[in-house]
Every structure is written in C-alpha cells, then in structure tokens.
Amino acid sequence: MQHLISANASQTDSRNNQVGVYLTIPLYSGGIISSKVREAIYNFDKVSNDLENAKLSIQEDIEGNHTRWKLGIAQIEALEKAIVSSEAALKSVNTGYALGVRIGLDVFTAQQQVIQLKKDLLKAKYDTLMSILKIKTALGQNNIDLF
Fold first, then answer.
1. One-character DSSP codes across 17-54
2. For residue 40, what are the domain limits?
C-alpha cells in the first residue's frame, strides 16, 4: 500500500455567514388606507357642519332675543303710561264713589286694573332683562352690567 502525501496540505476554512433583512410589504391591504382617509374627510365635514349649525343657532338666538328686548322696552313704556292713566281713572272712580255716583264694584274693578297693569309691567321688565342676559350669554359675556 502506498501512501501518497499530498503536496497541497493547506486546509481551507470555509464559513458561511449570512446577513438578511426581512421586509414584509402587503401587496393589498384591503383598502384600509383609503377607507381611513375617507372616514377622516367625512368626520371633518361633519364637524364643520356641526360648527356652522351651532353658529346659525347662536345667531338666531341673538336676533330673537334682540327683537324681544326691543319689544320689551316698548311694552314697558306703554305699560308705564297705562298705569298712570289707570291710576288717574281709579282716583276718579274713588271720587265718584265718595259722591255716591259710583258703586263699590267700579272701585274694585279700577283697583284690579291698576294691579294687573303693575303685574304686567313687572313681567315685561323681567322678560326684557332675561332677553338681555340671553344675548350676553350667547355672546360669551359674563359681566352683569346690563346698561
């Protein structure tokens, strides 16, 4: 048996090193991105519409209360004049009663009219005041100085 000695005695070290990056890219995501964009656009439109509706509602409230305030001022002035007139009529009825020309029912009716007008005046003042407060609230003013 013959031994052969190889002249090429060098050993080669072969190591296999691998470096890898795995990247997963969906080819189709079911339209989720476009769906989210559409949803965001619809939500923006809804919020914009809600804001516009709130602005219109506030504007209508202000205009309505402004009208009630102006009518209230006119009503207060008219009721104050009516009270002066009604008190003069009551004085006249009292004089007529004292002279025997009027009856007690006439005096009672005249007194009731004065009382009712004063009650209406107080309600008109209250309603007018509330209109002013509602306007100030709608405008975001929280001071109490009314006039």
1. ----------S--TTHHHHHHHHHHHHHHHHHHHHHHH
2. 32-137
